[in-house]
Write a structure and sequence with these properties.
By secondary structure, the chain is an alpha/beta fold. The chain contains 30 helices and 32 strands. Among the domains are: 256 residues, Ribosomal Protein S5, domain 2 (2-Layer Sandwich), CATH 3.30.230; 113 residues, Helicase, Ruva Protein, domain 3; 171 residues, no CATH class. Strand 12 and strand 13 form a beta hairpin.
Length: 842
């Protein structure tokens, strides 16, 4: 077994040193003297104002269509036209693209072509008072019906009491009273007459009627009666008992006669009330001849008024009733309250279907609610306290909602789905639904729902709802996907100019000259992050025009110039770049270590991007790698301390796959390496630094220094291809700003993925530096290309025998890994032998 390696050599290996002959080969290798650099024209595509045939946007016509949203417009038109159940819309896309504005504009264009929906009102239910009735009337008819019912109640207050004050009523009332009195008097008179024939008198006393024997024309005294013979006394007693029974029968009949008289009185009252009411209500029925529901309701009102006429006859004379100083409602007024009309929805004067946007879609704001009032310390309610929601206002038309706001409100999402499924609006308060209010409650009759709902939200929200809510796909079958950008070309540039002109006119801004339009187009391409695209983020574009108008007006200009647009862009950055400036300040002061000159092995400048609100900027970071003999593990220090995100960790693992697959396909990878973002105190996410980490690792393995005047961005796959990343413009400019403050030497630059070249839309000062040759941008397609630029040493390709040329980076890396594998083999043999002995002992 070979002897262990001396400690000095292990320390040398840990520091990345190579044997002397390897170092001489790296020095003698032919350096890379040239590499492709991007020209100024390739790093920024500028719009030439000379290509426009207008001087200012005032000469351009408005753009009638929505620019760059053909797919979304087709989806909206389909969703609007599709009248089947479940074809509601979900408008998705990033904030600021104009989703809500475009959707609302399309709906408002379609709304006048549809019929105006009916009005709805709630009225008292005479059969089940806790279930108010919903009445449907033509547009504008509910307000008139409410006025008619108010006028009817006013007429009843006068007509009913007046009918009972008439002489005819009083005469008929006297007849009933006289008939009852005469019937009672006749019955008692007949008994009196028969009793008188028997010598017995019928007397009326304070206690009632009584019988007494008579002598002559007078009544016997008790003494006289007792003086009579017993036979005669007995005769009187027997006669009195008979007449007493007859009198009791008459007395027992009296309540029946009284009830009959009361019945006649009630019938009289009904006849009088009917005569007073019929004319008023029949006249009202004639006005609503075609509305069966209204006619049925008026018929019920008619019968109810006749049944409760006595409440309308109560005089209002005297002081109002009070309870401990609190005024009590009059019985008649309380009774008349039931004839009110709760006007829920009024479409009077509306031309077509309603378009409603509910900004605060709570449960109650969507389906309505029932209010309560405090009466004598008790919460009470009635049908007049039913309040409409957004569904009521949008019924028969279109309702626009913010999806995130609906999902954020308790029970609002379930209420929305329930209404769409049932196609009915069940109005109830959330407190009643959750049984939080223990008081008088109502169950209003549901109103049929015919509405097209448009939810507006992010794409991720749409996909999450599709994945986790089974009902979502059934209720929202039309996805409206908005684009963030459009393809750039001469025709699209002209359309973009017309869109700018339209925005300026709509916002009442100054016109833009051709150079200003060209600068806005450049800004749109930069916002899209692609020289072949233009951003259609309307909110950002409108803000830029407003701010440019401000600066032009402040300077007293009558037109917006390119300078005004540029000043707007510059002041935007100035308002937001405090953190960016502080970061660069720390680099300039040496607090954050970032080198822009010299060479160093295992160290490279990586580039990251920070997003703070709407402002993003690039940040150079020092990335270092250290290697030693090990078990084939590349340690990501960021991940070990829970600062690295999963995508960043994935990128580091890909490096292990690349190294093992290229340099050690047939032997163990006996490498232990550590990678770290130096002076990084926050989380690191994304794989855009994986190529920089690989370069640092290759440099450490080959002991070849990397140029610190260059920075690197780009991800890498297991085959060594450099892949596109995001934020390429900000990353290049971030390193450029550091180099410029330290002084441009002409050797500084950035390596970017070749697939990102079409995304470059760099600032003018960076373009000017590239044009002057003081700063460079290198497109890189593979790791080999990048390592050659960073080291000046050829990467090397395998020859026919499968070997890398001596002196190349790949040759030195492979040799180092081979040495690690050979030195690690004895340890592996010892471990295997111990494992075998352990198995034999067991």
């Amino acid at each position: 077994m070979p002897e262990p390696m001396p400690r000095r050599e292990w320390e040398c290996e840990a520091q990345g040193a190579l044997p002397p002959n390897a170092r001489r080969e790296s020095v003698n290798a032919a350096p890379v003297t040239s590499s492709r650099r991007l020209t100024a024209a390739e790093v920024s595509r500028r719009c030439d104002p000379r290509g426009f045939d207008f001087r200012t946007t005032g000469e351009l016509e408005d753009l009638p269509q929505v620019l760059g949203q053909e797919r979304a417009m087709h989806a909206i038109q389909f969703g609007i036209g599709m009248a089947r159940e479940g074809y509601n819309l979900f408008a998705m896309g990033p904030e600021g693209v104009g989703r809500r504005t475009i959707v609302r504009r399309c709906l408002e264009a379609q709304a006048p072509r549809r019929d105006t929906p009916p009005d709805w009102c709630y009225v008292f239910n005479f059969e089940t008072p806790h279930r108010p009735r919903a009445l449907r009337l033509p547009a504008g008819g509910a307000a008139k019906f409410r006025q008619d019912m108010t006028r009817l109640v006013d007429d009843l207050r006068v007509a009913v009491p007046a009918a009972f004050e008439s002489e005819e009523y009083r005469a008929r009332l006297r007849e009933i009273e006289t008939e009852f009195s005469e019937r009672q008097d006749q019955a008692t008179a007949a008994i009196r007459e028969r009793a008188g024939g028997k010598g017995i008198a019928l007397l009326r006393t304070p206690a009632g009627f009584g019988f007494a024997p008579m002598r002559g024309n007078g009544v016997m005294s008790p003494d006289e009666f007792h003086a009579l013979p017993e036979v005669e006394q007995k005769q009187f007693e027997e006669a009195i008992a008979v007449f007493q029974e007859e009198l009791e029968r008459v007395i027992h009949e009296t309540p029946r006669w009284r009830r009959e008289a009361q019945r006649k009185l009630r019938e009289l009252n009904r006849q009088v009330t009917r005569a007073a009411v019929n004319g008023l209500i029949e006249e009202l029925k004639a006005e609503y001849e075609s509305l069966q529901q209204v006619r049925e309701y008026l018929a019920q009102v008619q019968e109810d008024v006749i049944d409760h006429a006595e409440l309308l006859r109560q005089p209002k004379d005297g002081e109002p009733s009070t309870f401990f100083g609190l005024p009590l409602p009059e019985a008649g007024e309380t009774f008349l309250h039931r004839y009110k009309v709760n006007l829920l929805i009024d479409h009077a004067g509306a031309g077509g279907a309603p378009v409603v946007y509910e900004d605060h879609p709570t449960h109650d704001n969507l389906i309505g609610h029932i209010e309560h009032v405090n009466q004598m310390g008790t919460l009470v309610t009635d049908f007049t306290h039913i309040k409409p929601g957004a569904f009521h206002r949008a019924n028969g038309g279109y309702l626009i909602l913010d999806a995130l706001k609906v999902l954020s409100q308790p029970f609002a999402w379930e209420a929305l789905k329930r209404a769409l499924r049932a196609r009915e609006i069940h109005t109830e308060s959330l407190g009643q639904t959750l049984s939080l209010i223990s008081t008088v409650s109502l169950q209003p009759e549901p109103i049929p729902l015919d509405v097209k709902v448009v939810l507006v939200g992010q794409r991720m929200l749409y996909y999450l709802l599709h994945a986790y809510d089974p009902e979502f796909g059934e209720l929202f079958k039309v996805g409206v996907d908005f684009e963030e950008d459009l393809r750039r070309g001469p025709q699209s540039d002209l359309f973009y100019a017309r869109m700018i002109a339209t925005l300026a006119r709509n916002e009442k801004l100054l016109p833009l000259d051709a150079a200003a339009v060209a600068r806005v187009i450049d800004y749109g391409s930069r916002s899209a992050g692609d020289t072949e695209k233009l951003s259609v983020m309307m909110r950002d574009l409108a803000d830029l025009l407003r701010e440019s108008d401000y600066w032009a007006a402040s300077a007293g200009n009558k037109e917006i110039s390119a300078g005004d647009v540029q000043r707007s862009i510059d002041t935007r950055i100035e308002r937001s770049d405090r953190i960016c400036r502080r970061y660069r300040e720390q680099i300039m002061r040496g607090t954050l270590l970032v080198s822009t000159t010299g060479e160093r092995s295992g160290q490279v400048n990586g580039l990251s991007m920070a997003q703070l609100g709407e402002f993003s900027f690039g940040m150079p970071h020092r990335i270092t790698a250290r290697i030693r003999l090990g078990a084939g593990k590349v340690v990501d220090i960021e991940r070990e301390v829970a600062l690295g995100g999963p995508i960043h960790s994935k990128g580091v693992l890909i490096l292990s796959g690349f190294i093992a697959g290229r340099y050690a396909p047939a032997r163990p990878l006996s490498l232990a390496a550590s990678l770290v973002f130096e002076q990084s105190y926050g989380s690191v996410e994304g794989d855009s630094a994986s190529s920089a980490e690989l370069y640092a690792l290759l440099s450490a393995l080959s002991d070849t220094p990397l140029r610190q005047s260059l920075a690197v961005t780009g991800s890498v796959n297991q085959h060594g291809d450099v892949q596109a990343i995001g934020g390429v413009n900000e990353k290049v400019e971030g390193f450029f700003d550091v180099c410029r403050e330290r002084g441009l030497t002409g050797a500084q630059g950035v390596l970017v993925p070749a697939s990102n070249v079409s995304h470059l839309m760099l600032r003018r000062d960076v373009v000017e530096a590239i044009e002057a040759g003081t700063f460079h941008v290198y497109p890189v397609a593979t790791v080999d290309e990048g390592i050659e630029i960073l080291t000046g040493v050829p990467a090397g390709e395998r020859d026919m025998s499968g070997r890398f040329p001596a002196g190349t980076i790949n040759f030195m890396v492979e040799r180092r890994l081979s040495e690690f594998a050979e030195r690690g083999q004895p340890r592996a043999d010892v471990a295997a032998k111990k494992a075998g002995q352990g198995r034999r002992r067991r």
